[in-house]
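Researcher: Sequence recovery benchmark, item below. Answer with residues only.
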């Protein structure tokens, strides 16, 4: 199993689907994860400060179809 998380504004699409840039970023972050790995965007890292989650910096990555570099973190423990 692998997972990627991002948070942001989503658009409601027909047939109860969701879309938008935040969904696209989440899919790109998920695609970077390896087996048994959970990756999160820098946006998620900023929102969980003080939660006790341990995150390891995986550096900046270019995400296809998304402007600019994005810092990615791995959830540890």
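Model:
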């Amino acid at each position: 199993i692998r997972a990627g998380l991002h948070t942001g504004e989503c658009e409601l699409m027909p047939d109860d689907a969701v879309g938008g840039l935040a969904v696209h970023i989440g899919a790109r972050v998920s695609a970077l994860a390896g087996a048994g790995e959970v990756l999160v965007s820098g946006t998620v890292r900023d929102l969980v400060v003080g939660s006790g989650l341990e995150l390891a910096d995986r550096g900046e990555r270019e995400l296809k179809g998304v402007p600019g570099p994005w810092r990615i973190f791995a959830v540890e423990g």
